[in-house]
Every structure is written in structure tokens, then in C-alpha cells.
Amino acid sequence: MAIAPTPTLFDALLLSAGGPLDFDKTVIYQMILFLGLMLILKPLVFDPALKIFAIREERTEGAKADARRLQEKAGQLLREYEAELARVQQVAAEERQKLRNETARLEAQILDEARAVSARMIEEGRRRIADEVNKIRFDLGRQSERMAQDIASKVLGREVN
């Protein structure tokens, strides 16, 4: 028992076309026509179209390169801006601190001067009070002497020195 070979896809195509392929003059005419059109259309259509595609591709790549370059430049400018902004903020913070320190120093100086002035005023007031107390004591001492002499004169009935 012999097994019949299974028909392949190629065999199926040959059978469906009506039999084996036959080449006649039309195939040769078609090949000549195809080659002639290729020779005529290549310089007239295909080469200019390919040239346009190449130019478009070149411009696209150039535009992409320009865009990359501009994006890198923008990134660099942003980094420079942020660095400058940080530097300015640092300088501003230092200036604020200097102003705070100067204000604190001036405040301390003004308070010290005010304390010194008030201490002088208090000392001067105490000195005046002490002077007046001494003057009043001196006056009281003289008056008490006179009064004592007057009392002694009246009691003794004569003048006492």
C-alpha cells in the first residue's frame, strides 16, 4: 500500500490556474515595458521624489537638533537663573541679618545712653536732695540755737549768748 503524496500549496496554485505555467511573448513585452518605464520614470519621478524625501529627512533632523540645542540652552539658562536667585536670596538674608544686628546694637546703645542719663538724673536728684537736707539741717540747727537762746533768755530773764 502506497501512500499518495499530499498536494502542496504550490501544487494547488498550479492546478487552480488551469495547469502548468506557460510563458509566451506577453511576458517578454511586459518585462520590456516594465524596464522601459523604470528607465524613464526613475530620473523623472523616483529620483526627485527620493531627493525630496532626503531633504525633508535632513530638515527634520536639523530641526530636531535645533530643538535639542535650544532645550539644552533653556535648561542651562534655568540653572543659571536658579543659581543667581539663590545667590540673591543669600545676599538678602545676609543683609537682613546685618540690619537686625545693627538695629540690636543701636537699640542696646540707646538703652545704655538712656540708662546713663537716667542714672545721672537720679544721682543729681539725690545730690540736690542731700544738699537741701543738709541746708535744712543747718538752718534748723541755727534756728534751734536761736530758739534755745530765746527760751533760755525768757526763762532766765536775761540775754544768753
Structural write-up:
The protein is mainly alpha-helical. It has one domain. Helix content is 87%, strand content 0%. The protein contains two helices and no strands. The protein starts with 8 loop residues before the first helix and ends in a 5-residue tail after the last helix.
Number of domains: 1
Number of separate strands: 0
**Beta content:** under 5%
Gross geometry = rod-shaped
Q: Could you tell me the mean pLDDT? A: 87
Could you say which structural class the secondary elements and strand pairing correspond to? Answer: mainly alpha
- Assembly state of the chains shown: single chain
Portion of residues within helices: over 70%
Keywords, please?
single chain; mainly alpha; 161 residues
Would you spell out the secondary-structure blueprint of this structure?
Layout: H1 9-16, H2 25-156
Summed up:
This protein has 161 residues and is mostly helical. 87% of the residues lie in helices and 0% in strands.
